[in-house]
């Protein structure tokens, strides 16, 4: 493929991203509701537990660092963990209990009912993420999912309290939309913190 | 008799932009509305920023993909590195280049060629050993000194362009005759000033978040075009010639 054809491919690839990014506006109501629910959980001492497979594992780690070490000076650090970091744990659970259990097992033993479980799956069909969200719901955690395409089994199964969808079937475009979504989630959770009167009165200190 | 505006009344246009600043302490609906509006604004910001990146660097991204394809066809391996959120991008780069996969339907579809790629951020033993024994600024540079060969690819991501360990890593990569690719934000910082990066893509923004979102697009498109450019090397779809 020559340079002219590659440049045309570049233009086409960038153009493919415009509509899914703008479609985030249509998710704004769900984004706002998710931020409010997360702010209430953080306010009540809950922790954010994040997970995903493959490239979404890197999103899980990115989300955790976003909350723990804010890029904007003066924003408070909030407790967040990714379940994708510990290779001994991940390979151990996979070998003994199977890959589908890799996040669900950790949630059962590391999470409390006050916490939040956030799963990332570009297709909405990752079996380990689905299993983890089901487990989190059984345990009483707030459940959230970032998905793409038609939302797959995660949306169909109704396993998450808040489902935010990227409107694309290209997993790379879905990931990019997810990055914007979780940056917005982080930033706007803090908006609720700065207006503590809008968090549930019983937990206001 | 008309009543003059109160001198300290909030400006109506500001109030419409940020209603939560003026809302009562329990006005949840006002805050939710502001959050919804903020979400829409950020979507528009990233669309505009990606358009600017394409206008500035579209042709250079295509040319860089050609360079990477030629390097991979000659046996190169790719090493990706970055700190914090950019460390997760480095791991995403490695996973993307290495993994089996498919091009999106909008780009012709078809199986992709898995390419040899490593993230320098994944090995906690190496990262903590170098940090503890020498200093964090040698993390990445020492790993490249140990594993990088002439012709290999060093790809580093930073939002500021000023991370000391990235600057040192690009110097080491250059000494070793590696092909260097950098992604930065703001004005490119030291990564731009020092001239040690062969192909530097600067996302012109001062928002760390928007920079990261646009950088993700840059490396995704770079990968997609590298896959297309490999076709001229006769790599059959799904083959692994590494």
CATH topology of chain B: Rossmann fold
Mean pLDDT of chain A: 94
Cα separation of the termini of chain B: 85 Å
Taken in chain order, the helices and strands of chain A follow as HHHEHEHHEHEHEH
Integer average pLDDT of chain B: 88
By helix and strand content of chain A, what is the structural category?
A: alpha/beta
Please give the most extensive interface between any two protein chains, plus how many residues each contributes. A-B, 57 and 63 residues
CATH architecture of chain A: 3-Layer(aba) Sandwich
Keywords (chain A): Isomerase
GO molecular function (chain A): carbohydrate derivative binding; isomerase activity
Enzyme class (chain A): isomerase
Organism (chain A): Streptosporangium saharense
Protein described:
The complex is a heterodimer of chains A (205) and B (242). Chain A is of the alpha/beta class and 205 residues long. Chain A has a single domain (3-195), classed as 3-Layer(aba) Sandwich (Rossmann fold). Chain A is 54% helix and 13% strand. Chain A has a five-stranded parallel β-sheet, sandwiched between helices. In chain A, helix 3 crosses helix 9 (171-194). Chain A starts with a helix and ends in an 11-residue tail after the last helix. The mean pLDDT of chain A is 94. Chain B has one domain (26-233): Rossmann fold. Helices cover 52% and strands 10% of the residues of chain B. Chain B contains nine helices and five strands. Chain B has helices at 12-17, 19-22, 28-73, 85-98, 124-133, 141-147, 164-175, 189-193, 208-230, and strands spanning 78-82, 117-119, 153-157, 179-185, 199-203. In chain B, strands 2-1-3-4-5 form a five-stranded parallel β-sheet, sandwiched between helices. In chain B, helix 3 (28-73) packs parallel to helix 9 (208-230), helix 4 (85-98) runs parallel beside helix 9 (208-230) and helix 6 (141-147) packs parallel to helix 7 (164-175). Chain B is globular. The termini of chain B are far apart. Residues 1-12, 18-23 and 236-242 of chain B have low confidence and may be disordered. Classes of the chains: A alpha/beta (205), B alpha/beta (242). At the A-B interface, helix 1, helix 2, helix 3, helix 4 and helix 9 of A face helix 3, helix 4 and helix 9 of B.
């Amino acid at each position: 493929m020559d340079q002219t054809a590659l440049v045309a491919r570049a233009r086409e690839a960038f153009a493919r991203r415009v509509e899914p990014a703008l479609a985030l506006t249509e998710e704004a109501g769900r984004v706002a509701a998710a931020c409010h629910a997360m702010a209430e959980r953080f306010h009540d001492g809950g922790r954010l537990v994040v997970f995903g497979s493959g490239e979404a594992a890197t999103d899980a780690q990115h989300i955790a660092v976003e909350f723990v070490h804010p890029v904007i000076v003066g924003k408070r650090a909030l407790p967040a963990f990714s379940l994708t970091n510990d290779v001994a744990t991940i390979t151990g659970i996979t070998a003994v209990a199977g890959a589908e259990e890799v996040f669900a097992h950790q949630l059962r033993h590391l999470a409390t009912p006050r916490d939040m479980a956030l799963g990332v799956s570009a297709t909405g069909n990752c079996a380990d993420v689905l299993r983890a969200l089901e487990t989190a719901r059984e345990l009483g955690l707030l459940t959230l999912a970032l998905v793409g395409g038609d939302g797959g089994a995660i949306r169909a199964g109704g396993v998450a309290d808040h489902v935010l969808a990227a409107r694309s079937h290209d997993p790379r475009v879905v990931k990019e939309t997810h990055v914007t979504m979780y940056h917005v989630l982080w930033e706007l959770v803090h908006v609720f913190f700065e207006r503590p009167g809008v968090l549930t009165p019983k937990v206001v200190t | 008799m008309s009543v003059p505006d109160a001198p300290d009344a909030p400006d109506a246009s500001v109030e419409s932009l940020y209603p939560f600043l003026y809302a009562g302490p329990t006005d949840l609906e006002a805050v939710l509305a502001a959050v919804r509006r903020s979400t829409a604004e950020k979507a528009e910001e990233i669309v505009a920023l990606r358009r600017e990146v394409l206008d500035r660097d579209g042709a250079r991204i295509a040319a860089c993909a050609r360079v990477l394809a030629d390097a991979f066809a000659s046996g190169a391996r790719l090493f990706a590195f970055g700190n914090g959120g950019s460390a997760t991008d480095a791991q995403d780069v490695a996973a993307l280049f290495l993994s089996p996969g498919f091009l999106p339907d909008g780009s012709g579809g078809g199986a992709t060629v898995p390419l040899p790629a490593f993230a320098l951020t994944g090995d906690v033993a190496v990262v903590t050993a170098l940090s503890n024994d020498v200093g964090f600024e040698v993390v990445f540079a020492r790993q490249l000194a140990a594993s990088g060969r002439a012709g290999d690819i060093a790809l580093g991501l930073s939002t500021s362009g000023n991370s000391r360990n990235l600057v040192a890593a690009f110097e080491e990569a250059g000494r070793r005759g590696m092909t260097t690719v950098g992604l930065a934000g703001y004005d490119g910082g030291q990564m731009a000033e020092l001239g040690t990066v062969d192909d530097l893509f600067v996302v012109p923004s001062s928002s760390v978040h928007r920079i990261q979102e646009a950088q993700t697009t840059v490396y995704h498109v770079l990968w997609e075009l590298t896959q297309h450019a490999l076709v001229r090397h006769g790599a059959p779809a799904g083959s692994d010639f590494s």
